């Protein structure tokens, strides 16, 4: 009934297994990849013919995590997995990026890749396992896929690279100074196709070494997929790339001159209009049959690409007239918005981001329900890309995959320079509104976010800047690396290589390749050129602000932290939360207590913070012998008065210690509810508190009569 093919390999610290032929047999290709006890099923289906008139490649990748994989039931009301989580969206993009360029040119049939996490051992992240499963499923499906690819995660500890570090190691990256890198690299046997990373100020050489290490370590996995395909692959789909050479020649002869003139215009809006006019002029000279050819769009794009790329490599000439390594003019402004906690407007050429910082308390932390466990995040970055930023009309609504991906890239770039939660106990939310875009708005977000946080008074370890690099690689091996690429250079070039970091090192690297990989030499050139660009951008940013402001906005909350013994937490909270509610209501401050005994007290009013602090301190602190405290008489008896003087602590003032004269009864001078000053004399043999009033001035609270030495 089943025709099962199974291959396995000892890879790193666990066994990697690939299996096909048992599950989802009606899919064109299905592979279950298991690493340790983490299993992901990848199922591939593809249409056997393209939709008429379609001029793009409709590849869709879906990665989904099932909570049963970790023995969990989803949180929320419906108890069912619903819209994709941020992790699922990011992993879908992670798999899409390296496989998309490897389909045969001209293939426009719809392809669907669905990766489902079936089991999670809480040690091995399913994202790399899913990438391997997807590659294997595509390789055996018969689709015109020029793979396989493989992926690997790389860590960096004590100067040594680590293959596939655990989920916990990567989750706690920020809190563990030994863990300095979380990098995922994907590639074919010969070349690297994709890199995604979060780093803690690594040098260019260390980052390049990590990419090389990951590529070397994935080679046995590629061999394993090839071995699986040899036994299980379907017959290759009979696909012949369409020959549109005659159509392309007609397009080129009709409009190459016009297209060159259009791309000589430096202003983006004027250039876009001129390119559209050139295309219309070309169409006007084509025959009816040529206009109906489904490859017309591809031929027009090829003409655009040849015009742009030829000038760059042969003449070192870019669309806007810049040299290959020149960054566009930069203007940085801070403190634009009067009521926000921090704001910055970062403009680089025709790309502009308005980034706003809001400081919050522990109540504002984001609760994340993940397969490997629930946790909170006190750093949030949300990126928005409205249609007007590129002068267009279009969909406007919730964030799409691109917005989530760009926001996460900027988030990773800034993580390394944030102060620790103990030094800066705030929740930080950044919102980047991209108001103009012509190339690398994610890197503009990094620059603007760095300035915005400093404007809000966040004590960053160092400012961070980012720059996007491009590549034009010709068939003869000649190439040009471009600094600070424009949108058209990204669209028509061969690489999108984003590098962010401080003056001392890289904090994030993201690379996507549209050709079959690049050499280490090209990567080394790109990293060196990116460093020069980054340092230049940091210099330009420093004209606005160089470090966090010493004063917060008047509208931002103030937060004080205090540490109490864990055995006192119950006393501060009280039965049913009665005590902490009273503290909040009386002081007017927010109070947040964690399981480690760290208390955060927040308010825009300093007096409210101090009042809450004093109330908590009186509950958890121990009274000191010889000190004077203010108290309240709670009960009068024949031999003295009981005074509540230290939080909920009571002590006895003996009748002989009330005044410096003999009293018939304490009620002669005291009544219940009266406020008095008392001195703590000490504790009797049974631990009972002994208090005295007679040596304390009841008006001022100062000692007026010193006890004589015994």
């Amino acid at each position: 009934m089943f025709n099962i093919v199974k291959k396995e390999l000892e890879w790193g610290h666990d066994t990697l297994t690939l299996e096909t032929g048992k599950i989802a047999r009606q899919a064109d290709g299905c592979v279950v990849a298991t690493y340790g006890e983490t299993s992901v099923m990848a199922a591939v289906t593809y249409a056997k013919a393209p939709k008429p008139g379609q001029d793009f490649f409709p590849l869709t990748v879906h990665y989904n995590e099932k909570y049963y994989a970790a023995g969990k039931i989803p949180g929320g009301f419906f108890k069912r997995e619903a819209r994709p989580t941020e992790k699922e969206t990011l992993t879908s993009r992670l798999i899409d990026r390296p496989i998309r360029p490897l389909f045969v040119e001209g293939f426009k049939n719809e392809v669907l890749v669905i990766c489902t996490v079936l089991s999670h051992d809480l040690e091995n992240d399913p994202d790399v396992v899913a990438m391997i499963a997807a590659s294997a499923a595509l390789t055996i499906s018969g689709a015109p896929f020029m793979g396989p690819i493989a992926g690997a995660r790389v860590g960096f500890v004590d100067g040594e690279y680590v293959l596939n570090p655990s989920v916990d190691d990567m989750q706690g990256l920020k809190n563990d100074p030994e863990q300095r890198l979380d990098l995922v690299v994907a590639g074919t046997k010969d070349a690297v196709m994709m890199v995604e990373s979060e780093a803690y100020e690594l040098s260019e050489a260390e980052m390049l070494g990590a990419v090389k290490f990951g590529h070397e370590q994935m080679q046995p996995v590629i061999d394993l997929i090839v071995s699986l395909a040899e036994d299980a692959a379907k017959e290759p789909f009979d696909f012949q790339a369409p020959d549109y050479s005659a159509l392309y020649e007609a397009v080129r002869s009709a409009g190459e001159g016009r297209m060159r003139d259009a791309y000589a215009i430096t202003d983006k809006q004027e250039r876009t209009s001129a390119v559209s006019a050139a295309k219309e002029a070309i169409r006007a000279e084509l025959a009816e049959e040529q206009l109906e050819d489904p490859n017309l769009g591809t031929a027009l794009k090829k003409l655009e690409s040849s015009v742009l790329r030829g000038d760059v490599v042969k003449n070192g000439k870019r669309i806007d007239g810049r040299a290959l390594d020149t960054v566009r003019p930069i203007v940085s402004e801070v403190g634009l918005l009067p009521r926000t906690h921090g704001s910055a407007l970062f403009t680089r050429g025709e790309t502009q981001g308005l980034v706003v910082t809001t400081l919050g308390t522990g109540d504002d932390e984001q609760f994340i329900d993940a397969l490997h466990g629930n946790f909170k995040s006190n750093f949030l970055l949300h990126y928005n890309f409205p249609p007007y930023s590129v002068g267009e009309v279009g969909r406007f609504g919730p964030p799409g995959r691109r917005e989530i991906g760009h926001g996460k890239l900027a988030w990773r770039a800034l993580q390394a320079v944030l102060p620790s939660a103990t030094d800066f106990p705030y929740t930080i939310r950044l919102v980047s509104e991209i108001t103009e875009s012509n190339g690398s708005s994610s890197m503009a977000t990094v620059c603007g976010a760095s300035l915005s946080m400093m404007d809000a008074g966040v004590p960053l370890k160092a400012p961070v800047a980012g720059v996007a690099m491009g590549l034009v690689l010709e068939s003869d091996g000649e190439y040009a690396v471009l600094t600070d690429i424009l949108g058209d250079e990204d669209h028509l070039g061969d690489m999108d290589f984003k590098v962010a970091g401080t003056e001392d090192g890289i904090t994030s690297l993201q690379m996507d390749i549209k050709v079959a990989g690049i050499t280490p030499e090209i990567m080394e050139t790109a990293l060196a050129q990116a460093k020069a660009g980054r340092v230049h951008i940091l210099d330009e940013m420093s004209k606005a602000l160089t470090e966090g402001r010493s004063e917060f906005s008047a509208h931002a909350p103030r937060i004080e932290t205090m540490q109490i013994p864990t055995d006192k937490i119950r006393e501060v909270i009280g039965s049913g939360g009665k005590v902490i509610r009273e503290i909040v209501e009386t002081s007017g401050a927010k109070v947040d207590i964690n399981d480690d005994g760290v208390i955060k007290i927040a308010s825009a009013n300093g007096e409210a913070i101090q009042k809450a602090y004093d109330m908590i301190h009186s509950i958890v602190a121990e009274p000191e012998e010889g000190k004077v405290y203010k108290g309240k008489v709670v009960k009068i008896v024949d031999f003295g008065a009981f005074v509540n003087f230290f939080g909920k602590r009571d002590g006895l003032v003996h009748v002989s210690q009330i005044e410096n004269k003999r009293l018939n009864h304490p009620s002669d001078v005291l009544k219940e509810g009266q406020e008095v000053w008392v001195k703590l004399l000490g504790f009797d043999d049974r631990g009972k508190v002994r208090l005295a009033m007679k040596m304390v001035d009841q008006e001022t609270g100062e000692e007026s009569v010193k006890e004589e030495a015994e």
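The chain is about 30% helix and 30% strand. Residues 520-541 form the longest helix (22 residues).
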